[in-house]
């Protein structure tokens, strides 16, 4: 199982998805809304929080989430909410999109309220999604905003920048990631599976005299196919040259021509008798 798939499967057991809305981003900002849900989408916590300082509708954060100070006057204070949250999570992992920000604001809010800070068991869904996306697309890891991750996963975003809505969006992204773990590319596994070995061609083999190059991802370990080929008399090399007589294309090279296939076709055009075969075709040739 892919390492990311293992993580997702583990988190799917008992994780809590959490999101917050705040009065801003700086060291004086406080949490004014928090929500938490479980893997089934059941709401565990959804409340506004009364801040210690008033803010106006010109507040930059207000322009994002639309939560006015007047709506918070009868909300519980952070110490009450923190106690409730800790009873809910009880050590369970918290999956938070941009966890560093939310956990900082949670403890910052506790400090402002002269309450104790907590070491949360938080997992950053933004970082986890970045790893998943890179493995899924075979593109470099990069930072993805929640709305962009949702769009890629086909998740409809409703009432964005409210805590509960963002929790639901994060959960939907998580479910999409979990459902598509079978398509993840594992570089370490790929390297191990496609590790080359030195072989000696069997002079008594039926295909003695053939020079074979194998490229791309294969359905079985490359070393295994190389050894089968060597036992059949093939000389296995790593690069295409005029001496090459067979080029074997792995599955990953079937969609678009690799540099080795392009070189082989150039040599074919020059009159060199190079066979270009799929893995299945090559294995059939070996079995003849």
Write the layout of secondary structure elements.
Elements: H1 3-14, E1 16-22, E2 31-38, E3 43-48, H2 60-65, H3 78-89, E4 94-96, H4 99-112, E5 122-124, H5 125-137, H6 146-152, H7 163-179, H8 187-193, E6 211-215, H9 222-231, E7 235-237, E8 246-249, H10 259-269, E9 275-278, H11 279-287
Parallel strand pairs: 1-4, 4-5, 6-7, 6-8, 8-9
Antiparallel strand pairs: 1-2, 2-3
EC number: 2.7.7.7
Keywords: Exonuclease, Hydrolase, Nuclease
InterPro entries: BRCT_dom, BRCT_dom_sf, DnaQ, Ribonucl_H, RNaseH-like_sf, RNaseH_sf
Strand content: 5-15%
User: Regarding quaternary structure, how should these chains be classified?
Assistant: single chain
Count of DSSP E strands? 9
| Backbone structural class | alpha/beta
Please estimate the helix content.
40-55%
Keywords: Exonuclease, Hydrolase, Nuclease
GO molecular function, one term: DNA-directed DNA polymerase activity
Pfam families: BRCT, RNase_T
Catalytic activity: DNA(n) + a 2'-deoxyribonucleoside 5'-triphosphate = DNA(n+1) + diphosphate
List keywords for this structure.
Nucleotidyltransferase, domain 5, 11 helices, 2 domains, elongated, Rossmann fold, 288 residues, alpha/beta
